[in-house]
Design a protein that fits this description.
The chain is built from 4 helices and no strands. It has helices at 2-19, 24-34, 36-44, 53-71. The longest helix has 19 residues, at 53-71. The chain has 85 residues and is mostly helical.
């Protein structure tokens, strides 16, 4: 019963976030971890969608700046194997 409630909270969190302009997969994971608190977080986080184009552009640039480290192409990987020289 509790597991079904937690899964329902995760789905509701993802749907609410997607409607408000957020990344649904990220919010699904947040909902899985936080449960009902994730639903409240998705509701109270400011929406990324706005009818004012200036506000929407500002919010979109903020999201892109936050995601920039995740998209960098020259990521450093750690390996247990020694490099052959």
């Amino acid at each position: 019963m509790i597991l079904e409630f937690w899964i329902l909270c995760a789905i509701v969190t993802a749907v609410v976030a997607a409607v408000r302009g957020g990344h649904s997969l990220l919010w699904l994971l947040i909902g899985c971890i936080l449960g009902p608190i994730g639903v409240l977080a998705a509701i109270f986080v400011p929406s990324l969608k706005s009818k004012d184009p200036k506000v929407a552009a500002i919010r979109q640039t903020e999201v892109e700046e936050l995601a920039k480290p995740l998209r960098e192409s020259d990521t450093k990987t750690v390996s247990a194997k020694p490099k052959d020289h």
